[in-house]
TrEMBL record:
Pfam families: HTH_3. Residues 16-70 form the HTH cro/C1-type domain. This is Helix-turn-helix transcriptional regulator. It comes from Rhizobium rhizophilum. InterPro entries: Cro/C1-type_HTH, Lambda_DNA-bd_dom_sf. The lineage of its organism: Bacteria, Pseudomonadati, Pseudomonadota, Alphaproteobacteria, Hyphomicrobiales. CDD domains: HTH_XRE. PROSITE patterns: HTH_CROC1 (PS50943).
Length: 104
């Protein structure tokens, strides 16, 4: 159980760091917007410290994210929607073929 918690903290920290870098923000800027100290934010981003839910909500919003609970049963569908390696052979049934015009 302890390993699962450690892995979850590390995964969360990795996501926070990647998002922060994509948004070209410093740890100091995110911490200020979230209302916490930079050392506290650094610990959370490094995955070495857990945070209260309100702190995670504030950090997420500072990064332009929203924290939400998703039922585990639909996680595979959410993961598929968020995947960056979209394969044209694996389009959802409702997707329009991007290579085909209405005249075809």
């Amino acid at each position: 159980m302890a390993q699962a918690v450690s892995d979850a903290l590390w995964d969360l920290g990795r996501l926070l760091k990647a998002t922060r870098k994509d948004r070209q923000l410093t740890q100091e800027q995110v911490a200020d917007m979230a209302g916490i100290s930079r050392p506290r934010y650094r610990e959370i981003e490094a995955g070495i410290s857990a945070a209260r839910t309100t702190t995670l909500i504030n950090i997420a919003r500072a990064l332009g994210l929203e924290l939400m609970l998703i039922p585990q049963t639909i996680l595979p569908a959410v993961d598929a929607l968020l995947r960056h390696d979209h394969d044209l052979d694996d389009l959802p049934a409702f997707a329009v073929n991007p290579d085909r015009s209405d005249d075809d």
